[in-house]
Amino acid sequence: MLNTESIRSLKGIGDKTAKLYEKLGIFTVGDLLSHYPRAYESMEPPVPIGSLKEDQVMAVSSALTKAPDLVRFNRMQMVSVYLKDLTGSVQVVWFNMPYMKNNLKPGTVYVFRGRVVKKRGRLMMEQPEVFTQEAYEAVAPSMQPVYSQTKGLGNKAIVKAVSQALESRTLEREYMPSYIRKKHQLAEINYAVEHIHFPENQSQLLFARKRLVFDEFFLFLTGVRKLKEKRADQTSAYVMKPAAQVKEFEDSLPYKLTPAQKRTWEEIAGDLSSGLVMNRLVQGDVGSGKTIVALLALLTAAYNGFQGALMAPTEVLARQHFESVNQLLSQRNMEIRTVLVTGSMTAREKRQAYEKIRTHEADLIIGTHALIQEKVEYHNLALVITDEQHRFGVGQRELFSGKGEDPHVLVMSATPIPRTLAIILYGDLDISVIDQLPQGRQPIKNCVVNPQWRPKAYEFIRKQVEEGRQAYVICPMVEPSELLEAENVLDYTKTLRKELPSSITVEYLHGQMKGKEKNAIMERFASGDIQVLVSTTVIEVGVNVPNATVMMIENAERFGLAQLHQLRGRVGRGAFQSYCIMVNCSQDESTGKRLEILNQSNDGFYIASQDLKLRGPGDIFGLRQSGDLEFKLADIFTDAALLKAASQEVNQLLDEDPELEKEEHQELRRRISAYVGENYEKLNL
Ligand code: ADP
Ligand code: MG
């Protein structure tokens, strides 16, 4: 959105509140207006108590017959009251909100709206919002936006700010040419912005969303197209010859490359020697063996006298790459020098690393974003490889090459995007697909179980550990929370230490730990010193400990399918039979169906396609795909048809009017250049 006025210009937002908004990435009124709701609450009319359903947010209307009770236990305070009507009764509770006791007057009719849960076989409503009858009638039926929030900045405050911003804004001039809007039945831009926040019903919401999704794709693809033009036939300063040492290295590996790895490596090697700058995407499911292909390319650069860099999205992964590359090199007495650069290194360590890079005492540089964020000066950096992360564009490339020449670029991704979509989204890249797993891999055995099955799972983990294997246990949360019933890493570690024999070392890992602590734990797990690792999703991408054979995922219902697939990809990476245990703590039928997809298949493409079928076109706020293509609203799977439409329009438009000089394209030109300005770094355009 184009409004660049500070959010401080809104009533009621001073320095203190503005700081909270900044935490959400909102600085301007435009940012606020594109802080789209993460969900909508349909405020439906109250239902009879007898028709309350588990796991749903519902409203009931009832008169209080007596004042609520305040109960204290442990350090908790709970306000509780029973509601009754002709169809049944239900207990309503609030935790640590003692004032609710005095807020509610006996004899008055209220509407209670909250989540219905089942505890000890009985339904109850937790933490409901309370309305007077009139207040509820004023809002129901309607759809209320739910925004992502931060501590100190709740939904109500954001709703208020957004509606103020909508009222006081200057309307945006329509920039999408009317022939495109007509052809695809797209809402007017101001209508779309208004109704994405405050739709009256589902059809208004879908209409508004369609326009904004189209725009997201459209603007993004104009950028991709520009990149493609800029890159086409760009001659490279780093032309490489095949190196005999690389071939020797390949032959010395304990395994043979799969035909798919071979083909991909040949395509890369062809690019490196072609005289043009390489821009290639390597797509391959988890465990397909992308790393070794990357290493062959890096070694080729090194033996041609150049530097090569490998960038990973997390410190854990960067360090792992560093260790495993070093091991492969030293086992063979190869004289390739490596260096690691990560954010958690001390200033002194960093200085030493930079010095080695600047003076070309290091051939291979492995690290996190620190590789580009810090002032690293490369010396003949000929190849940059990014593992499991965002596309890599001119912006980052400039940061890498400094005043030097453009390096070859290889992007490695496990996101299972069908080829037709990949060609559009990565239009600026050539694509290689590793569509085979290494031989001898046994398919992972899966099971979806309910929480009662836990003791058996622990027993199973114990047996696996006794056979010399290792296990991951994933919990969605770090610490206990009163509001959310989900397993947490800290308590779970304690439980497992009790449940498993003391000879088994159980440790934990989560994102709030210091970099050094995380590294130490990860190293101990990789070396086998720790047998059971309880972790949040920090280990989701890339981590490779082939000896680990059990992946147990608690509250599996809380994760998206793509994420579960990535997590499961941490096992089954060696010769041992591996297992994935998904604990489903929800009774919900559709959750069961979703998990069943994973239970039946280990194939990322299949899972993505089935996920799509289950979600259906109206189910737009379903679970987001994890992965490297993040749009604000758009989902490349559910919105595939719009993606294709936007792609066609962009291509036609830029074929006919490459510089957007026509009168009818002036507003669009202005919008695109603002977009490129805003996203220069983020989207790497
Ligand atoms: P990903 O594609 O998920 O990044 P990795 O590159 O981490 O996968 O490879 C997973 C595991 O498979 C590693 O332990 C690696 O050594 C091993 N591996 C790679 N290629 C082969 C192969 N052709 N045969 C057997 N094992 C392989
Ligand atoms: Mg990997």
From TrEMBL:
<keyword id="KW-0413">Isomerase</keyword>
<dbReference type="InterPro" id="IPR011545">
    <property type="entry name" value="DEAD/DEAH_box_helicase_dom"/>
</dbReference>
<dbReference type="GO" id="GO:0006310">
    <property type="term" value="P:DNA recombination"/>
</dbReference>
<keyword id="KW-0238">DNA-binding</keyword>
<keyword id="KW-0234">DNA repair</keyword>
<dbReference type="InterPro" id="IPR004609">
    <property type="entry name" value="ATP-dep_DNA_helicase_RecG"/>
</dbReference>
<dbReference type="Pfam" id="PF00270">
    <property type="entry name" value="DEAD"/>
</dbReference>
<dbReference type="GO" id="GO:0006281">
    <property type="term" value="P:DNA repair"/>
</dbReference>
<dbReference type="InterPro" id="IPR033454">
    <property type="entry name" value="RecG_wedge"/>
</dbReference>
<protein>
    <recommendedName>
        <fullName>ATP-dependent DNA helicase RecG</fullName>
        <ecNumber>5.6.2.4</ecNumber>
    </recommendedName>
</protein>
<dbReference type="InterPro" id="IPR014001">
    <property type="entry name" value="Helicase_ATP-bd"/>
</dbReference>
<comment type="similarity">
    <text>Belongs to the helicase family. RecG subfamily.</text>
</comment>
<dbReference type="InterPro" id="IPR027417">
    <property type="entry name" value="P-loop_NTPase"/>
</dbReference>
<dbReference type="InterPro" id="IPR047112">
    <property type="entry name" value="RecG/Mfd"/>
</dbReference>
<dbReference type="Pfam" id="PF00271">
    <property type="entry name" value="Helicase_C"/>
</dbReference>
<comment type="function">
    <text>Plays a critical role in recombination and DNA repair. Helps process Holliday junction intermediates to mature products by catalyzing branch migration. Has replication fork regression activity, unwinds stalled or blocked replication forks to make a HJ that can be resolved. Has a DNA unwinding activity characteristic of a DNA helicase with 3'-5' polarity.</text>
</comment>
<keyword id="KW-0547">Nucleotide-binding</keyword>
<dbReference type="InterPro" id="IPR001650">
    <property type="entry name" value="Helicase_C-like"/>
</dbReference>
<keyword id="KW-0347">Helicase</keyword>
<keyword id="KW-0233">DNA recombination</keyword>
<dbReference type="GO" id="GO:0005524">
    <property type="term" value="F:ATP binding"/>
</dbReference>
<keyword id="KW-0378">Hydrolase</keyword>
<dbReference type="GO" id="GO:0016787">
    <property type="term" value="F:hydrolase activity"/>
</dbReference>
<dbReference type="GO" id="GO:0003677">
    <property type="term" value="F:DNA binding"/>
</dbReference>
<dbReference type="GO" id="GO:0043138">
    <property type="term" value="F:3'-5' DNA helicase activity"/>
</dbReference>
<dbReference type="InterPro" id="IPR012340">
    <property type="entry name" value="NA-bd_OB-fold"/>
</dbReference>
<feature type="domain" description="Helicase ATP-binding">
    <location>
        <begin position="271"/>
        <end position="434"/>
    </location>
</feature>
<feature type="domain" description="Helicase C-terminal">
    <location>
        <begin position="456"/>
        <end position="613"/>
    </location>
</feature>
<keyword id="KW-0227">DNA damage</keyword>
<dbReference type="Pfam" id="PF19833">
    <property type="entry name" value="RecG_dom3_C"/>
</dbReference>
<dbReference type="InterPro" id="IPR045562">
    <property type="entry name" value="RecG_dom3_C"/>
</dbReference>
<dbReference type="Pfam" id="PF17191">
    <property type="entry name" value="RecG_wedge"/>
</dbReference>
<keyword id="KW-0067">ATP-binding</keyword>
